Amino acid sequence: MQKYLSVRSGSRARLKLLGYYAQRVCTSRRLRRVTTRALVAGLGALHGREGRPREPGPRVAILRAQGFLRMDRLLSPSECAEMLAWLRPRPLIAARGNGAAFTLDSVPHDANIGDYPLETVVNCPHVLDLANRPDILALAAGYLGYTPVITLMGLRWSFPAGGDGDADVQHFHRDVEPGSIKLLVYLTDVDDRSGPHHYVPRSHLDRMPLRMQRYADPDVQRRHGGSIAITGPAGTAIAIDNKGIHKGVPPQTRPRLLLVIQYSLLPCLMYEYAPVHYRGRARFSPYTNRLMIAPQPAPASAAAHPTP
After folding, report:
1. Strand runs (DSSP E) across 218-255, as ranges?
2. Do 278 and 295 contact (CB within 8 A), yes or no?
3. Which one-letter DSSP state was computed for residue 293?
4. 277 near 118, Cβ under 8 Å?
5. Residue 79 in 3-state DSSP?
6. In 130-255, at which residue ranges do the beta strands (DSSP E only) sit?
7. Angle at Cα 258 formed by Cα 213 and Cα 182, nearest 5°?
């Protein structure tokens, strides 16, 4: 997962955080739409109009109307099994806890969530191939209005544990990154008792709140009529407009592994990006993957090896 910026990270980080909080002042849907159109026009002028999507398809229409789209299984059972086997010995980080590292064979008894470092996520089998599938990129471009940039990638375990779950992601909330959608893919089987993702249909059409907040289940039921729980076998995928109200329910019976990929028009100002090495980088668009994959090192110049 990506690291959050801190005001202690220097003047550039503080400037980016100022921009992040400034955009949150814009809560009006109409003003956000106008801003997005201007941004898309600017991206087209800067990078070329070929980045503009063709006629959006029916999946984009469903996502616009409901805020979420349940998709087919994007990964086969064998692909999910291969990913799980590759990840098993690799360390996780209790990024939303004490920051300690652990493995699946030594999960702390009080751990609710464990995240893999970005280098592990990027190099995990099938992750980048899935993130760069033409139909997925077309969906993101059709919804956002221009060729997307991958602004977040994560592999996260949620564990059955005591307590009330993580205060941020395991209770109803909205994400506030503008111009973004997320692709969520279950890498384990998920039923009602193993941590299904919940989404509140059409809540992405609400006026955005000025401050981030949690939403109590009774309030969601009263104001929106409740949420929809998405269950399914490993490989099941959901695309969501993350402005809508959603949560990942803490699992009760068995751990859940979730792949998260976020597509945006621009880099998210709240994150500190540190792209990592990936040997097969040439297969993927540098524009779309530039925040996740480090560029090819420049060849040493002749000046570095002067002739005697």
Report:
1. 228-230, 237-241, 246-248
2. no
3. B
4. no
5. helix
6. 149-158, 180-186, 197-199, 228-230, 237-241, 246-248
7. 55
Instruction: Evaluate the CA torsion angle 227, 232, 234, 237 in order and state its sign.
Output: negative
Tokens for 65, please give them: 């109307």
CA dist., res. 194 & res. 168, Å (int): 18
Which residue in the block uniquely carries the two structure tokens 């992750």?
127
Label residue 254 exposed, middle or buried (CB < 10 Å: 0-12, 13-18, 19+).
middle
Q: Burial level of 31, CB count in 10 A (0-12/13-18/19+)?
A: exposed
Query: Can you name the residues that pair with 68 across neighbouring β-strands?
Result: 240
Percent with pLDDT over 90 in the chain: 62
* Residue (of 4, 28, 26, 2) closest to 16 by Cα position: 4
Average pLDDT for 167-173: 76
The pair of structure tokens assigned to 123 is: 């190099």
Q: Report the amino acid identity of residue 75.
A: L
- Range from 144-148, 175-179, 295-299 that averages highest in pLDDT: 144-148
Q: Which two tokens stand for residue 23?
A: 């955009």
At 23, phi and psi to the nearest 5? -70, -25
Alpha-carbon gap, residue 101 to 40, rounded angstroms: 41
Residues with Cβ < 8 Å from 21, sequence gap 6 or more?
none
Q: Give the other-Cβ count within 10 Å of 65's Cβ.
A: 13
Distance of alpha carbon 232 from alpha carbon 189, whole angstroms: 6
**Tokens 């597509």 sit at which residue?**
263
Q: Exposed, middle or buried by CB within 10 Å (0-12, 13-18, 19+), for 18?
A: exposed
DSSP state, residue 110: T
pLDDT tens figures, 107-136: 998 888 999 999 999 999 999 999 999 999
